[in-house]
Amino acid sequence: MTKQYDYLIVGAGLFGAVFAYEAKKRGKRCLVLDKRTHRGGNIYCEDVESIHVHKYGAHIFHTDKKEIWDYVNQFVEFNRFTNSPLAYFKGKLYNLPFNMNTFYQLWNVRTPLEAKAKIEAQRKIYSHLSEPANLEEQALKLCGEDIYHILIKGYTEKQWGRSATELPAFIIKRIPFRFTFDNNYFNDAYQGIPKGGYNALIDALLEGIEVRLGVDYLKERSYWEGIADKVLFTGCIDEFFDYQCGCLEYRSLRFEQKLLDMEDFQGNAVVNYTEREVPYTRIIEHKHFEFGHQPVTVITYEYPDNFELGKEPYYPVNDVRNTGLFKRYQELAQSRKNILFGGRLGQYTYADMDDTVEAALNLIRQEFVNQ
Fold first, then answer.
1. Is 136 one of the annotated active-site residues of the chain?
2. Does the predicted TM-score (pTM) go above 0.90?
3. pLDDT, tens digit, 9 for 90 and up, residues 209-229
4. Burial grade of 262 (CB within 10 A; 0-12, 13-18, 19 or more)
5. Of the residues 29, 123, 251, 276, which is catalytic?
6. What is the pLDDT of residue 122?
7. CA Rg value for the chain
8. How far apart are CA 93 and CA 88, in angstroms?
9. Active site annotation includes 39
10. Is-catalytic flag, 120?
11. Closest Cα partner for 159 from 278, 271, 251?
12. Which residue in 65, 352, 329, 42 sits closest to 202, CA to CA?
């Protein structure tokens, strides 16, 4: 018996939307479900006083792949936003990423030669740490005291919810230094924000595709699987299998949003707060993503949070235990021939948006390789 849909896509985020668009383009009948009451997943934007508020944290599209940049630009034009965050520590501001502006602010050095000498002198103190036992030793070996204590330690401990001496060294494999006065955070050739916000991109991808919101697929999975030939699941893979191998660990976030009766609060889209004593990790001022001139502004305080069921999972804890656990879930997934798993939750990974688009395109190519 012919089923009503070729693909049931669980999750109206970026991965699901790209897959749905490509499947529809190939003549397939698609139904997209999402348990949230909006499309877009974590790149959803809320309109507040004509400001596109990134409801689930700052999202800046960047890529070094021209084909991915051209792909998303066919749906919506991107602006020229350049990510240049600042770091706040005990009343002082520092430029990010670590570049000559940062080194001048730290040590009053003016040339790359002076900066390199200062970094090397601080690193030398920890050169005896041939095999760093934890993140703190690894960071000190890579950058020395000042950069570590002012710009890395507190922020990292807040983000992961534990002391840097309790975190594995592999979290920081390298620390990039730029010996130019360049505050562009990304090295990628292409960078920007969709004009009109990310909803414009998602709406274009899902145009002409049936979408049902506020629907929890897992509560009636037998019904939903019965109306489609295949299911693409972009939720948590451990939840799909009812946690039968155990729960995968995540870090979560919570957000405190404020509408302020002023034109500009901090003069920048993102300011990181690197002191351990400050409970939030950054303040986002959303109007700066699109160069807004509204008479008011919206800011969001971003707080790291412990993950528990019912909270949104953001960052996978990719340690040995969780990596092994995920492999067991992957083995279970391979036995479900009519179920595809994708997205950051389905693949238990932290993925930038360009990687998400590319992964969805790769999956669709695998699906239609013989068609």
1. no
2. yes
3. 999 999 999 999 999 999 999
4. exposed
5. 251
6. 97
7. 22
8. 5
9. no
10. no
11. 251
12. 42
